[in-house]
Amino acid sequence: KKMEQFLLDLKQEQFNGSYDLAYKTINHLRKLISQTRWTHAQELMNTIKKEGKKMITAQPSEYVVGNMVRRVLKIIREEYVRLLGESEESANKESLHKMLTAEGNERDDHTKPLKELKTTVIEAVNEYIDEMEASIHNISAQAIEHIHSNEVILTLGKSRTVEAFLKQAAKKRKFHVIVVEGSPLYHGHELAKSLASKGIETTVITDTAIFAIMSRVNKVIIGTHSVLANGGLKAVNGAHMVALAASHHAVPLIVLGAMFKLCLLHYSDIGGSEATFNRLASPQEVLDYYDGGTEELVNVQIYSPTFDYVPPELVTLFISNIGGNAPSYMYRLLSELYHPDDHVL
Amino acid sequence: MNNGDAENLTSEQKKQLKKERRKEKNAQKEKHNIPSKPEGEEPKIEKSKAELRAERRAKQEADRAAKASKKSDQVAANTKQKGPRVPANIQSVINLNKTILKADDPKVQKKAAKKLEKQQVPQRTEGQKKVALFSHLHQYERSLSITKNIGFGKNAIHPAIIRLGLQYAEGTVTGSNARCAALMSAICKLISDYETPPQKELSRHLESKLKPAISFLDQCRPLSVSMGSAIKYIKLQITNIPTGMSDSEAKLRLIKSLREFVHVNIVLAGEAISGYACTKITDGDVVMVFGSSSLITKVLCDAHNAGIKFSVIVVDGRPKLSGRGTLRKLCRVGIKCSYVLVSAASYIMPEVTKVFLGAHGLLSNGYVMGSVGTSMVAMAAKIRGVPVIVCCEAYKFCERVQTDSFVNNEIGDPRDLLVQNKSELTSPLLTNAAWEETDSLKVLHLTYDVTPPDFVAMVVTELGKIPCTSVPVVLRVRSLET
C-alpha cells in the first residue's frame, strides 16, 4: 500500500526537492530489503531492480530515484563480495585474464546464500543514509574556502544547499549576494528574504538583468537538480542563461551538489513522447488564464520548461560532500558509486 | 594663600575690583575710538566710501561689457562652419554628466535643487531603499507624488507638459517613438499657446520657457535618447528663426518643422526600415522578438501582409511584461505566435532562425541600448549562431559611449517587482512589508541594458543596412546635413 502511495506521489510530483525524494526512496528500499523474503543476493537484487523499474517509469525525469536504486545494488554487491572473504579491489579489477576466462563462478553469480548478508546490507544502507543527511553540512563547511570578503555572489532561484553554504560563509565573511528571481516560480524572493534576515546584504534582480549585472559579479554559485555523467548539469530553468552570461564575462561558475545527485545518464535531445530530460510545466505560470484565455490569444503556444541543460564547458567547479572536483573528473566518480552491470536496469 | 584671600574678599571689595576693571575697559575703548571721533576726519572716510562705490560700479560695468563681448564671440564661433565638431560634442556630454550621473554627490544635488526652484519645477523625492551599486543614479518611487507642490501662476509650466509628465511617470506613454511623438505634440501646443511678452524676442524667450518644461519632464522620467534628439532639433529650429519674422509666422513655422520631424524620422523612417527588413524574412522562418518595440511590430505585420509565411516567438521579461502587448498585436494580424519568458530563451533557441530586436538608442561605440533583457536574448542567439538583426531609426543614434549598463541607466520603481495585489497571499514574491522592514534586502528594477556589438549581425536603419560599428559614420553624415 505504501508502495502505491509512493508511486502516486512520484507521478504527481508531490515532493520537496531532490533531497527529500532521495531520502524517501532509500528508506523505501531499506524497507524492501528488511521486509521481503529472499535467500541469496541475486534474488534480492532482482526484487530491487523490479521495484526500481516501477519507480523510474512513474517519474522518468527524476534521476535521483534511479541513482538510489543503483547505489543500493552496488552496496549489495560490495557486501556480498566482502563477506565472501575477498577484498573489494580484486573483485572490481577487470583484468584481461578474467575477461577471457570468464566462468560463471559463485562470486559473479551472487547466488551463495549468506546469513549475515541481510544485517550487513542494512547496516551499509544506514551508513549511506547518514552520509546523505550530513551532505549539506559537509558542503557548507567548505564555504569559507571559496568566498572571500567583499565579494559579489550571484545565485539563481532557491536551493537549500546554496542557502546553507552562504549562511555558513556569512558567519565569518562579509559579502554581497545578488539573487536572480528565477521565473516562472520566483523562488529567488524566498531565498533573498531568508538571507537578508541573517544580515547578508542581498539584492533581488529580474532574469532580464542577469547580463547587465554580470560584469560586477565575482562568482556565480548555483545548486543543481542532478549532475549528468559527462559533468553537465540538469539545473533549474534559467541556469543556462546564467551560465552563458558568466562565461561571457569570465566569471567562475560553482555548482553545489551532494553525491547522490550524480547520475549515469547523458544528455540527449530526444523530444516528443520519449523525452525524459525536461518537463513542461503548466503555462499558467507564464501567461495566466486571465490574460491568455482571451479569444485573440487562444492559439498561442506557451512553453514553460522546468529544467535546463548546462554543458560541462560552462561549469568551473563542483563542490560536493566529498570535496571539490572539476567537471571533467565527474565520470570517474561514477565507478565508485555504481556498478557497470547496473547501468541498464 | 591666594585662595584664602579670594574667599576673604568682602562684597565691597569685589565691587571695587569690578569698578576698576570697568574703568580700564572704557579707557581702552576710548583709545580705539579716538581715530573716528575727531570730526575733521569724517569727510575723508565718507569720501573713501564714495570712491569705493564708484570703483565697484566701474568694475561691474567692465564685467558686463566683457560678458557681452564674450557672448558675441561665441555666437560668431557657432555660425562658423562645422569643421571640428568634436569638442562641442564632448562639451555637451560633460555638461550632461555634471548633473545627471551624480545623485550621490550632495553639492551637485543642492545646486540642482536650487535650479529647479528657480524654474518653479517641483523636485521629486528620492525613493527610500537605494541599491548601492546604482547610488549615482536617481531612484524614484511612483507612490511619492510629483505634482503635489506644483504651482499655477504666470510662469508656471504649461498644462500639456504637466499632463505629458504624468503620463511618462505613470507609464501610460512608453516606448521611445511614442514618447518622442507625444513630446513633440505637447511642445507644439506650448508654442501655439505662447505669446511673446513685450520687449522680449521670441527666440530667446521661448527657449527660456522651454527649459523649465524640460526639467519637469526630466523629473517625471529621465529623458530618453529619442527625446534628447528631438529637443536638440527644437532648440536648433528656434535659434534658426530668421530675425524680423513676425511672431505668428515664426510660431507656425516652428510647429510645421516639429510635425515634419516626427513624420520624417518616425513614420517615413519606419516605412523604409520595414521595406529593408522584410527582405530579410523568408518563408518558413521562425523569428524571435523581445519585449515590445513599435518598429519591430510594424515590420512583422508588414511582412505578414506581404504574404510571407513565418511564425514568431515572443520573449518576455518581468516586471513590465511588455511582450504581451506585442503578442496581442501580432495575433490580431493572424501571425502564428509562441510565448516564453526570458529564462526559457536558450531552451527554445534551437527552433529559432532569426532574432529581431528593437533599440532604445545606438551608442557611438556600436553598443545597442535596449530594454533590459535584450542582451540576454542576443547572447543566447549568438551562442547558437542565430543572426541578430536590430532595427532602429537614425534619429536614435547618440554620441554617448558606454561599455556597461551601470554608468548610465534608469532605475525604476522597486515596488513593481513585489506582490501587486494583497489577495495573492500564496505568491512567492516578496511583499512590500517584507521589503521595507528588512534593512539588508534591496530590490533592483533596471530599465535598460547595453548589448555588445559582437552579438549583433546587422542594424537596419532608413539609411540602409549597416554593421553596428558604423554608428559614428551615420552621426557624422547627419550632423553635416543639418
Automatic annotation (TrEMBL), chain A:
The keyword Iron does not apply. Its main location: cytoplasm. It holds the Pfam family IF-2B. It is found in: Cytoplasm, Cytosol. The keyword Protein biosynthesis applies. One of its GO terms (cellular component) is cytosol. Keywords: Cytoplasm, Initiation factor, Protein biosynthesis. It comes from the Eukaryota. GO terms for molecular function: enzyme regulator activity; translation initiation factor activity. Transmembrane segments: none annotated. PANTHER family: TRANSLATION INITIATION FACTOR EIF-2B SUBUNIT BETA. Component of the translation initiation factor 2B (eIF2B) complex which is a heterodecamer of two sets of five different subunits: alpha, beta, gamma, delta and epsilon. Subunits alpha, beta and delta comprise a regulatory subcomplex and subunits epsilon and gamma comprise a catalytic subcomplex. Within the complex, the hexameric regulatory complex resides at the center, with the two heterodimeric catalytic subcomplexes bound on opposite sides. Belongs to the eIF-2B alpha/beta/delta subunits family. This is Translation initiation factor eIF2B subunit beta. It comes from Ciona intestinalis (Transparent sea squirt). The lineage of its organism: Eukaryota, Metazoa, Chordata, Tunicata, Ascidiacea.
TrEMBL record, chain B:
Keywords: Cytoplasm, Initiation factor, Protein biosynthesis. Residues 1-89 are annotated as: Disordered. GO terms for cellular component: cytosol; eukaryotic translation initiation factor 2B complex. This is Translation initiation factor eIF2B subunit delta. It is found in: Cytoplasm, Cytosol. SUPFAM superfamilies: NagB/RpiA/CoA transferase-like. One of its GO terms (molecular function) is translation initiation factor activity. Its main location: cytoplasm. It comes from the Eukaryota. Component of the translation initiation factor 2B (eIF2B) complex which is a heterodecamer of two sets of five different subunits: alpha, beta, gamma, delta and epsilon. Subunits alpha, beta and delta comprise a regulatory subcomplex and subunits epsilon and gamma comprise a catalytic subcomplex. Within the complex, the hexameric regulatory complex resides at the center, with the two heterodimeric catalytic subcomplexes bound on opposite sides. GO terms for biological process: cytoplasmic translational initiation. Pfam families: IF-2B.
